[in-house]
Design a protein that fits this description.
alpha/beta, fumarase, 5-stranded mixed barrel
């Protein structure tokens, strides 16, 4: 299992291969459909996500005494229309579940990014790897707001590597 830390460098990204098991530590950001739409409408993507990783997730309400509520992955293909523009703006990684379109796969390869998979149906378990959480943008969107997360050993699988190779082929 590879241990990697954010911010991801191109050297780190190049070493990742489709199917690799990874433990990620550092900063990631959540963003779902409505946040993606707003990012592109307001042209905020450069400011917020250059060199960053987006986790397709909408956390549930935070229980008393916890850092965050359950936070499992959202189906990634719902963000496919937005992804090429975010990669062009400097996004280096995404975390979600499920396959991606041919257009997104090509954009990942073109921009030398990476798409990670994490475990569906395990939102409560995945919340245990989150050490800090705070709203970063678009608080009015509730669970679809963008949250800044500090993670430690967050479990991932490389779904599509920077050469465009994926686990779904």
């Amino acid at each position: 299992m590879k241990k990697i830390h954010t911010p991801l460098t191109q050297d780190q990204i190049k070493t990742l291969k489709a199917g690799d098991a990874v433990l990620l530590s550092g900063t990631i950001y959540t963003a779902r459909d409505q946040a993606h739409k707003r990012l592109l409408e307001r042209r905020d993507q450069d400011r917020l996500f250059k060199g960053q990783i987006i986790y397709y997730c909408g956390p549930t309400k935070t229980p008393k005494g916890k850092v965050i509520g359950a936070c499992g992955p959202t189906t990634s293909c719902r963000m496919d229309n937005f992804t090429p523009a975010l990669l062009k703006a400097g996004l280096v990684g995404m975390i979600g579940k499920g396959s991606r379109s041919a257009e997104v796969r090509a954009a990942i390869e073109k921009h030398k990014a990476v798409y990670f998979l994490t475990f569906a149906g395990c939102g409560a378990l995945l919340s245990k790897y989150i050490k800090k959480a705070s709203a970063a943008a678009y608080k009015d969107l509730g669970p679809e707001a963008i949250y800044k997360l500090e993670v430690k050993d967050f479990p991932l699988i490389v779904g599509i590597d920077s050469r465009g190779r994926g686990v779904y082929r």
